[in-house]
Specification:
Residues 87-183 form the Replication protein A OB domain. One of its GO terms (molecular function) is DNA binding. Keywords: DNA-binding. This protein is an alpha+beta fold. It folds into 2 domains: 9-66, Nucleic acid-binding proteins (OB fold (Dihydrolipoamide Acetyltransferase, E2P), Beta Barrel); 73-214, Nucleic acid-binding proteins (OB fold (Dihydrolipoamide Acetyltransferase, E2P)), CATH 2.40.50. It contains 7 helices and 11 strands. The strands form 3 sheets. The protein has a 5-stranded mixed β-barrel. A 3-stranded mixed β-sheet has the order 1-4-3. The chain has a two-stranded antiparallel ribbon with strand order 2-5. A hairpin with a 5-residue loop joins strand 10 (157-166) and strand 11.
Length: 258
């Protein structure tokens, strides 16, 4: 993302991943040259945009000593935990910030295609002591899940984007192939949450000990819009319309048998 909030999706393949994984760090500013640019396939444009970069061995990456912490902080739009239900089973990409207080053992499932996937659940809590289950799939196990497992006693701040919301276990969130993670990032939201953790460390420990978040919560449903609400006095009119449609269909059915 540049300072005008223009975004581009960059991809690194194969052996180049290891070469750049310690060189390209989130929230840093870089001058990148000699990357290839190509049009994104139509089926992926809604996710990554119309054009895509490919970073390879000959790409030059130079870090610039510029501090854009305030700008980066302003680019985040976090979904509150109590509004997650509004995005259940939708295509909306959401971002959240929370404190990791627990991580469950990994487990394996077989997908519809027959492949085996590794899954691990992380429990996040916000400043209202509300919890949500974050399900992390496959590629996030080797790095992100291991980091959380090694550090959840320290209650790390997690900022994660490009998540989807489902009705599993009430309301839960899960990673997608393009999800991103940042731990204890130097942004204002994370600093405020870190200070809150320090002030409420004992209460957070009690939340972890009680583990009330393990019980399945009933799924919340979004309130319908005004245009979706029918007044009681208008219900009879709807029944007349339905009856007329049913009668019309019945007449057509009888005619087809004549």
């Amino acid at each position: 993302m540049d300072m005008e909030r223009n975004k581009v999706h960059a991809t690194i393949y194969d052996t180049n991943i290891q070469a750049f994984q310690d060189q390209l760090l989130q929230s840093k500013t870089y001058l990148i040259s000699n990357a290839t640019v190509r049009l994104t396939k139509p089926q992926y444009r809604s996710t990554v945009g119309e054009i895509q970069w490919t970073i390879f061995g000959r790409t030059k990456v130079q870090e610039l000593q510029e501090d854009h912490t305030a700008f980066i902080s302003s680019t985040y739009v976090f979904t509150p935990f109590d509004r997650l239900h509004e995005h259940i089973d939708s295509k909306t990409n959401i971002s959240i910030i929370g404190v990791a207080i627990d991580i469950k053992p990994k487990w394996f499932i077989h997908t519809r295609s027959g492949a085996q996937s590794c899954i691990q659940d992380v429990v996040l809590v916000n400043q209202r002591f509300e919890t949500v289950l974050l399900t992390m799939w496959d590629q996030f196990f080797e790095k992100e899940c291991i980091y959380i497992s090694d550090n959840f006693n320290k209650k790390p701040i997690i900022v994660t984007s490009h998540l989807k919301v489902s009705s599993f276990s009430g309301v839960s969130i899960s990673t997608k192939s393009n999800s991103t993670f940042s731990f204890n990032p130097p942004i204002e939201h994370a600093t405020q949450l870190h200070n809150w953790v320090q002030e409420n460390n004992e209460q957070l420990s009690q939340v972890f000990m009680k583990k009330d978040y393990l019980s399945t919560k009933p799924t919340k449903l979004s309130s319908p819009g005004k245009e979706q609400i029918t007044d009681i006095r208008n219900i009879q009119g709807l029944l007349v319309v339905v009856s007329a449609i049913t009668f019309h269909l019945s007449m057509n059915t009888q005619a087809s048998h004549l």
